[in-house]
Amino acid sequence: MNIISIIALLGTAQGVFLTLTLFAWQKGNRRANAILAIIFALMSLAMWNVYLNTSGLYRTLTFSIRVYDALRLLTGPLIYWYVREMVVRPLRWRDSWHLLPTLVYIVWLIPFFMSSDAEKIRFMEQTLEGASYQYVVFAALRPWWTLGYMLAALRLLMEYSRRIKERFASLEVVGLQWLWNIVLGLSAMTVMVALAGIGTLWGMVRPNQINHAMAIAAALWVYGLAYFALRKTIVYSAELRQLLAEPLDFPTPPPLLLKEGGITAQSHSRLLPPFARTNTADTENDIAADVQQIEQDAKHLLQFMEEQKPYLEHQLTLQKLAILTGFPAYRISDIHNKHLSLNFFDFVNRYRIEEWKRRAQEAPQAITIQELAYSVGFNSKSSFNAAFKKHTGQTPSDYRAHYGIE
User: Fold this and answer.
1) Does 232 share its domain with 273?
2) Mean pLDDT per 10-residue section of the chain, whose length is 406 residues
3) Model-wide pTM > 0.70
4) d(Cα 56, Cα 358) in Å, to the nearest integer?
5) Among residues 36, 39, 41, 63, which one has the least CA distance to residue 52?
6) Quick one: 114 and 241 in the same domain?
7) Domain range for residue 262?
């Protein structure tokens, strides 16, 4: 036993505990939790493998040699699947092709598993010392396979970030920043393993040294993932999946906007895209009229925002604003993106910041920056500070100091 063996053994125990916990958990996104449980199980097997190698116990438990090796190609697909589930992209049966490389590798390893104990031990000792050049080459290439899945997962997260900013004004619950951090951290760890693998080809690093470093990194990763994932996946329910999956509908305008210069039934019909209009005879004229109509709609929307102040609601979404205004959700999105060059998130937060400025000049000295931020619709100090800095180029404290506001 040494320090590496102890770390690997503790990490294994933690991983097994989290695996059982997630499989038994009945709340949140259960399929995502099941995938995460398998990831924990795989990481537990990885750290158990390190423990066997560093303690020399593999000489006794020869049946365990290369068991984790046979499953290592699953790490990338599992992380990718987990991210897909979390960003509201459910898996389909056709996604099972990602398992094919692992199945092929397992079939290729069958002769090894059927070999004698002496042959298995000899292979293991040669591998740990870097003497098995064929395996060293394969081990050097394998991390790049995983890294490809990490990049695919990051791409999904980027797409998800764009989508939620088109529909949500507050991202604290749905932002998945913790998942960003986990995937980025795991990607960095994969890159280091890939570079170390190249070092083994040049004889600069031995495989057992990589295993030692990975034991520490994997143990820290499991503990970090335990804290964030268990805390966040519980609140990440099917409600968000349904909300993001809803199409941009075409609601009938309520009386609020049918009076006092609001949209009319005729103008509302022009809000519909060509495929949704009943009269297609004047489609070209309608498209031309949309250029002027979107400017008029933008004026009405801005007027509504100024007078009704819907941005004060903490959980304002695109669909809620569509119901309040009577504009189709896709039309509001068009106004943001094409007319104002803003997404929904920035559009709403800009109004919140301007409201904060007005209130900051009138508020008593006892009211803090955070209290004012909450009163105008922000849910956290960090999101307010980030939005304020983005839209004004100043921090809230600097703004108060500059204008002499206590």
Assistant:
1) no
2) 76 82 75 85 85 85 89 91 83 88 94 92 79 72 89 92 86 79 82 76 63 64 62 50 51 42 43 44 54 80 92 89 87 83 90 91 79 90 90 86 61
3) yes
4) 69
5) 63
6) yes
7) 255-402
